[in-house]
Amino acid sequence: MFRTTLYLDEETVLALRQLAKLQKRTQAEIIRDALKRYFEHARLEKRRVLPGLGAYRSGRHDISDKAEELLKQAAKQR
After folding, report:
1. pLDDT tens-digit profile of 23-76?
2. CB 6 within 8 Å of CB 31
3. Distance CA 59, CA 66 (A)
4. Angle in degrees, 0-180, between the axes of helices 10-23 and 27-48, rounded to the nearest 10
């Protein structure tokens, strides 16, 4: 493990101290767990941003040029 320094506002420090005391854990443990969960969540969110983007090929090369026309045609077919 590596040692680092965090600068926290007073309210956050007090909340962290209270939580550590309540859970009988160190402040470092709580911070590590919080950061781990944050990074896991961020990684999952990144995957969910645009699922399927770039996963399909239409075989057409004029899609961006004719986007509006193609959308209108698709809407008419519904």
Report:
1. 999 999 999 999 999 998 888 766 665 666 666 777 777 777 877 887 888 888
2. yes
3. 14
4. 110
- Here the tokens at position 56 are 């399909």
| Residue carrying structure tokens 């239409």 | 58
Cα 48 to Cα 54: distance, rounded to the nearest angstrom: 14
Tell me the C-alpha distance between 50 and 18, whole Å: 39
Helix ranges, the chain (H): 10-23, 27-48, 67-77
What is the residue whose two structure tokens read 């007073």? 10
Tokens of 59: 């075989």
The answer to whether the pTM exceeds 0.85 is no
Which pair of structure tokens corresponds to residue 51?
A: 């699922």
